[in-house]
Amino acid sequence: SDPSKESGFTAFCDEASAKPFFDVDQHEEVVFTYDVEWLPSEVRWASRWDVYLKLSAGKIHWFSILNSLVIMLFLSGMVAMILMRTIYRDITRYNELA
Prior knowledge:
Blueprint: H1 4-7, H2 50-53, H3 62-97
């Protein structure tokens, strides 16, 4: 499938050019493409994440743990406040009816 067939115009990026090759406002659709080159690796498929998952000599990510706890406490507080306001309103309306 050739992306230039639909619009009849293909633009290529050139590092030496100072002005754009085409005006995006004049075209309804812009097709982006890319190339991928697969290279063989000596790493087995089952152990590809081992480099990222292994902790070296007690290296614990304290900032990430603390950040997660702070976010959890903040969101729990928000839910608790919404729940308390709702229950307070319900109790107030119930007492007005009684």
